[in-house]
Specification:
The chain has 1 helix and 8 strands. With 153 residues, it is an alpha+beta fold. The protein starts with a helix and ends in an 11-residue tail after the last strand. Mean pLDDT is 83; it is low at 6-25.
């Protein structure tokens, strides 16, 4: 009787772990893609507009990431950070920064809060700045192939 109980408990445990893993995989796939940082501004008629910045976050479904910046003066691109990320919950993940030109960032774990708004193709993130001890908000829009008829959309 005791062995049957342990067997059933083990099956339940593995089932729960499998369901959790499947959910984290779905979250990872939803976040996967290339994102461009934007700043939201109000237009003349109070409509919401986005100012696109030369900063990109590339999140891969295999759990790797990199942040890319384009220098507006030279047009040259460089990576700010690269490493791995692990989704913790449906609203948090951790970036394990393996490489960065900024020595204080290389080798650290950066906790991130996020909210994905699929209908708007927007990713809202916040990272914790240990120097100021504050959460810093960011807004990203998914980079996509433009429609042939209107590449500015």
């Amino acid at each position: 009787m005791k062995s049957t109980r342990y067997f059933l408990l083990t099956i339940c445990l593995f089932g729960s772990i499998s369901a959790y893993s499947q959910e984290m995989l779905k979250q990872s796939q939803a976040l996967a893609g290339t994102w461009q940082m934007v700043v939201a501004i109000k237009g003349e008629q109070n409509q919401l507009l986005f100012r696109y910045l030369p900063l990109f976050k590339i999140l891969n479904a295999n759990g790797t990431f990199c942040n890319l910046q384009i220098d507006l003066r030279s047009g040259r691109a460089h990576f700010n950070q690269e490493g791995r990320f692990n989704i913790q919950t449906d609203s948090t993940y951790i970036e394990h920064i393996e490489k960065s030109p900024h020595a204080s960032y290389a080798g650290i774990e950066s906790p991130m809060k996020y909210k994905f708004i699929p209908e708007e193709k927007v990713l809202l993130t916040q990272y914790f700045n240990p120097d100021t001890k504050q959460w810093i908000p960011e807004m990203w829009i998914r980079v996509e192939i433009p429609e042939k008829s209107n590449p500015e959309k």
